[in-house]
Amino acid sequence: KSASDDQKSSRAKVITPEQLRSRLWFDNPDNPGMTALYIERYLNYGLTGEELQGGKPIIGIAQTGSDLSPCNRHHTDLAKRVREGIAAAGGVAFEFPCHPIQETGKRPTAMLDRNLSYLSLVEVLYGYPLDGVVLLTGCDKTTPALLMAAATVNIPAINLNVGPMLNGWMNGERVGSGTVVWKARERHAAGEIDYEEFLEIVRSSAPSNGHCNTMGTASTMNALAEALGMSLPGQAAIPAPYRERGQASYDTGKRIVEMVWEDLKPSDILTREAFENAVVACSAIGGSTNAPIHLNAIARHMGVPLSCDDWEKVGFDIPLLVNVQPAGDYLAEEYYRAGGLPAVMAELIAQGRIHEDALTANGRTAGENYRERFTWDRDVIRPYDDPMREQAGFLNLKGTLFDSAIMKTSVISPEFQKRYLDDPQDPDAFEGKVAVFDGPEDYHDRIDDPSLGIDENTLLIMRGTGPIGYPGAAEVVNMQPPGELIRRGVFSLPCIGDGRQSGTSGTPSILNASPEAAVGGGLALLQSGDRIRIDLRKRSADILISSEELERRRADLAARGGYPYPASQTPWQEIQRAMVDQLSEGMVLKPAVKYQRIAQS
Ligand code: FES
Ligand code: MG
C-alpha cells in the first residue's frame, strides 16, 4: 500500500481556482496584455489553453539530477512518475533544472554551492507562475538548499528523496559508501593494500544509482526532511532502485496538488516543534555533523529560532537506535526493510520525545503518521531501552578556542565516552599538546614530519577551513595520524577544526568551530606545541596559556593583517565570502535572512 492511500489528508480545500498564484501570470483579466505575453510562449510546445487557464495548479518540479550529479541522476527518471501523479490529481507539471551540487565532484567543496543553489531556486520559485513545488532531493547539499529556498518563498512544497544506493558488498562484507574510503585510506597508508586494491574496494561501495548507502549527510538530511514533516511519511529511506521509490514519486506528485488546494505551506509545517522533532530524530539515527549547519540554516530562513545550544539541550540525551554505518554495522537496505524513519519515530513517540501534533505534508500529524509503526528487526533498529548507545546527540563546546563547536558522541569509542563524559567519579579532562595545520595542503605536506613530535596524546588542529578561510568550509577535518603511528596501531587522534567532516566518517572530532580562524577565532592564536584542555562534562575547550600571552598573540595577528587565507578563484567565492555567516549560524548568506515568506509579500 502506498503512503498516501492509507493516510488521506483530513484537511479541507481552502483555495479556489480563482485564487491560484499562477493566475496572475496565465489568466489575469485585469491585465490582458501581460497575460497574453506570459501565456503565448508556454503554449508553443504543445500545452493547451485548458491546461494553462482551466484552473489547474501549476506545479514546479525542482530537478537536481543530471550527468554532473550522479547521486541524484535517478531523479531524471523518477520525475516522470512525479509528473504522472501531478496530472492524475489535476495539476500541470513544470520541470526545471536546479544548479547542480555533487558532493564528491565539486571543487573545492560542494558546500560552496549550497547557498548558490538556494539563491537561484528562490528566484525561480518567486518569479515564475508556480502554485506549488516538488523538491527532488538526495545528495548532501541538495536537500538543505531546496528546503531553505522553499522556506524563504513559502509556497506549498514537498520533498522527494532520490533514495540511497543498494548495499555495497566485497568478499562477503558490507561496504558502505564514504565510510569505506576512510577505512581503506588507513589500510593504504599502512601499506596493506596498493592503489588498485584501494580503488577496487571503494568502487564496490557504489553498486547502483542513488545517494550514499551509509548514514552520511544525504541519508541524514532526507531523514530529517521527513522528520520535519516536509515529505510523505516513510519515503526517505526507500532505496533508489526499489519499485516503492517510483510509487512514492507518483504519490508525492498527487499530494502536492492537494497541498496547493489546502494551502499547506512550509510555514505551517516548519515550526519550532518540527525542528525539535528533527533534532531528536538526528540523534536516534546517528546523523551527520553537517545536520546542525543545514537545519539551523533552514530554520533561519523560516524565521524559527534554533541554535547549537538547542541541539545539545533537545538532542544530546537521545540514544542511538539505528545500527547503520558509520556508527553501526548495516546499510541502507536493511534500514529500509526494518522500517526506516517511521520505526525510529514510533520508538521516540512511545517515550514522549516527539511533538506528536506537528503537522506534516500529508495533512496529518507526526503522531498519526508514525505511532505504533515499530520495527520487526530489533538488530537494525534497536529499542529505546536497549540502544546502540546512550546519549548519542551532539555536544556544543565553548571556551577560548571557539564560541561553538560540535562533537558527535555516537562515533567516539565507549572507553573514551566513559572516561571523559559519563563517569562522575573520574574528573579527567582531555589535555594534550596540539599539532596545528593551516588547511589540508599543509596537513598533507607535514603530517609525517618527525619534528612535529606527534604521539598518541597529540590533538590535531585544522584551521583556515571555515566558510571564509576555505571558501565554503571544506570537509577536511578527517585527519589521520602520521604513518608511523598507524603502523604502531594508533588509527585515530582527536581532531579539532573550523571546517567540517564528512558525515560518513567516524573519527572523534570537534568540528564546525565558530568563529573560524579567518575571522579571528581562537584557533588562529594557537601554535604547535601549545597545550589545550577539553572538558566534555563542562562542555569547555580552552587554550592553556596565560591571558597576557593570548592578548600578545592577538595583537600580533592583527598587526600582520589577520589570519591569512588564499585569494578567491571564482566570482561566487568572493561574493559569498563577503556575506556568509559562520557554521554555527548555518553558514547562511546574511543579507538573505530578512527575506521571509516572500510569495505572500
Ligand atoms: Fe552524494 Fe554521498 S556523495 S550522497
Ligand atoms: Mg559529505
UniProtKB/TrEMBL annotation:
Sequence ranges assigned to domain Dihydroxy-acid/6-phosphogluconate dehydratase N-terminal in this UniProt record: 56-369
E.C. numbers: 4.2.1.9
Keyword list, A-Z: Iron, Iron-sulfur, Lyase, Metal-binding
SUPFAM superfamilies according to UniProt: IlvD/EDD N-terminal domain-like, LeuD/IlvD-like
InterPro entries in alphabetical order: Dihydro-acid_dehy_C, DiOHA_6PGluconate_deHydtase_CS, ILV_EDD_C, ILV_EDD_N, IlvD/EDD_N, Sugar_Degrad_Dehydratases
GO molecular function terms listed in the Swiss-Prot or TrEMBL record: dihydroxy-acid dehydratase activity; iron-sulfur cluster binding; metal ion binding
Every Dihydroxy-acid/6-phosphogluconate dehydratase C-terminal domain range: 379-586
Domain of life: Bacteria
PANTHER family: HYPOTHETICAL DIHYDROXY-ACID DEHYDRATASE (EUROFUNG)-RELATED, HYPOTHETICAL DIHYDROXYACID DEHYDRATASE (EUROFUNG)-RELATED
Assigned protein family: Belongs to the IlvD/Edd family.
Protein name per the record: Dihydroxy-acid dehydratase
Naturally occurring in which organism (per UniProt): Saliniramus fredricksonii
